[in-house]
Amino acid sequence: MTKAEAKKKIEKLKEAINHYRYAYHVLDEEVISPEVLDSLKKELFDLEHEFPEFMTADSPTQRVEGKPLKFFKKVAHERPMISFDDSFSEEDMKGWITRLENFLGKTVREAHGHPEEKWPIFYCELKIDGLATELVYESGVFIQGSTRGNGTVGEDVTQNLRTIEAIPLHLSPPEEVAADLKKMGIDPAPYVLNPRRLVVRGEVFLTKEEFGRINEEQRKKGNKEYANPRNIAAGSIRQLDPRIAASRKLDSFQYALVTDVGQHFHEEEHVLLKAFGFKTNMHNKGVNSLEEVFVFRDHWAKHRNEISYEIDGTVVMVNSNKTFAAAGVAGKSPRGAIAYKFSPKEATTNVLDIVVQVGRTGVLTPVAVMEPVNVGGVTITHATLHNEDEVRRLDVRVGDTVVVSRAGDVIPQVNYVLKNLRTGKEKPFKMPERCPVDGGRVAKEGALAKCTNPDCGAKHRESLYHFVSRAAFDMRGLGPKIIDRFLDESLISDAADIFTLKEGDLEVLKRFGKKSAANIVKEIAEKKKITLPRFLYSLGILHVGEETARLLAQAIAHSKFLASQPTGVGNSLASFSREKLQALPDVGPIVAKSIHDWFHREKNIGFLRKLEKAGVEIEFPKTHAASRKLRGRSFVLTGTLSSLSRDEAKDGIRVLGGEVSESVSSKTTYVVVGENPGSKYDKAKKLGVQIIGEAEFLKLLG
User: Catalytic site residue 127?
Assistant: First the structure.
């Protein structure tokens, strides 16, 4: 066989195998037997090894490749992968609609703005119990896959995702995409069918059958069985060796099209995803009323066992992308979508004890210790009782028989007590008057009980764990056991002392060698520079989570005290009155008081000085305080920019005082156009809004 003949044969085999893969995994049609498909793959494999110059990254033979990785690289998402709020009842769903419509200032039907028979008002999806992923294609070829991570940054798991047959290594050609759209009654003309870059999101999961097979293998080997399919799916994708993921026969649905190719509705995205060659869920459905949403959810609550994979509820969202964008985000969740979960699975067990745990902020939490019980595939032995008021409401006592469930199929909770089974030996619970860790006086703050000792041992220890956690300083080598050891050996008294540790301090410790000591000191030194939001989160201020920390960081950007040292940050926030803090989004009186008090406490000011002396530096764009030249101007971005990502462009605008919007209006100052612009470009021309290219935009950023 000549090279020319081999090249042609390889292309034909790739085309045929991709066609059969699409038919089987996307259309659910078995055109040829698995044995015949394996034979074709073997022929392609042999040819590619005989003529390696014709082997490409998108070949079906390259699904399993590469050596085990040493670690996963970090991947920044173009847009945050946000999570949904949960609802568990029709009343919850009605409350969601009320909040949404109050925010929009109109009904969802009015905001929809499209004939409902074409694209319905709501779109309902089955909520797969799997692992969320993001896939990136360039020039039609799969180049990168990542996990959700913290929503902003995930892990690069491309090697593992390549092993999943349901994920195409190459998008369908534009002419095939157009033909498939026509078959589905969709005019392909308005869409970009060959985007230079395409970003999609979906879910990786394990079928019930494969879950059973893997656990059968575990039993035969005498190993512990896995609790549920999701754990295996998530664990497989996070294995450094791709052969493990390949052995698990994972599956995947795609459910979101991040790239603007001309779509206006979420259901439209599913149609386009299928045409591009992705596997989508055939059971998802568009509906026009909340009543139809209830019917959809209730149907699958009854029939969930009839499908081949685990689901824990449904996802309901407004179908219009414009309305979804206008609704924005509240906290960490979009207002325009919600997870409508199934009723929790329940079981009974006995309460062996009620213990008190002292958390990072000194809050005392009663926890029920129970006889082990399996609920929804997970063995439960503990369930938080939240606070003393909740204990009274449930009237739960040591020795009681209780009904437990997993809220949202995840969090263990005590639902109620079977009081008719009481024998009279049950013991009521009472919150201690003194902290069980350090003996400090316990005081009530609303429904919470807190240790009044600011130096509470448990609080202190938990605050150190928090300080080095991934969302804060991200010191991977300093887990709780290492921190405990540092405390026990009196090497540190607070988090600032961590930065002063030397190799000699650690080498003398038992089970600490020269290499491990050097690695820890190196890790600490590399983490002295930290972004402003992560720094604020690391301080462990009561009620300040990651989202509030980001809001505070944005607020500081306008402060005259802004500096790259911890004390500069402290001075900036100390200058904020409670009223000014409350003016920030999602910051109420309690949160404002907590922030204000923290930055006016002498001990905390001293801690910031210690951090500064230890060499901790805050990273942020230098132009924050220097220039606000885009103040009063609003920007809309459309298309792909070649020199910077969408998020980098948005950050650049905001740093200079400008505003970013997702939709074009008469109030828009500029529409920035990159490659393959969407409908925003057309709307800008129609409204007479100034349109600028990437070069002009970069000049504005200076």
Answer: yes
